[in-house]
Amino acid sequence: MTKRLHQGSLRQSRKTAPRYKHSRAADVRPDSDVCNCTVLRKAARRVSVLYDRALGPSGLRITQYAILAELGRSSPMTITELANAMVMDRNGLGHNLRPLEREGLVKTEVGCDRRSRVIVMTKTGMARLADAKKLWEQGQERFGAVLGAKKIRALLPLLIAVADADYGDPATAR
Description:
With 174 residues, the chain is mainly α. The chain has helices spanning 2-16, 36-55, 62-74, 79-86, 90-102, 123-147, 149-164; strands at residues 77-78, 106-110, 117-121.
């Protein structure tokens, strides 16, 4: 019942939520008073809702799916390595790892120096990731249908550059 109400409220808010005040991206100048961070966060939230809905039947949220996918590519990883790969702080990563550990999808092991902790995806996690990948692909298809291949080909290198840029903050430099 709660889930149905939650999904309904998302639909309701989407219908009634005002669109971004600039109807066309071409209308926005780089020197305008539009905050780059705010626009990126709005876009990320909108796209996250799309993927969360697609992944719904798997019981995973897009943040959890992304962690499992990263571990699927590079497991095992220390918490610091995984946080850096996800461009997250360790506390945020820990918050997202707890439900994955509770469900037995990942486990934490002692690292080689006994002070470090290593995150390992379990066989259950691998199976859940494989099942969720089909749902994730549906989210990818929906995103592609809305934006179109040409815009996505232009967008991805820009987003990668934004994620990899050095903004001069030593705490986040990689």
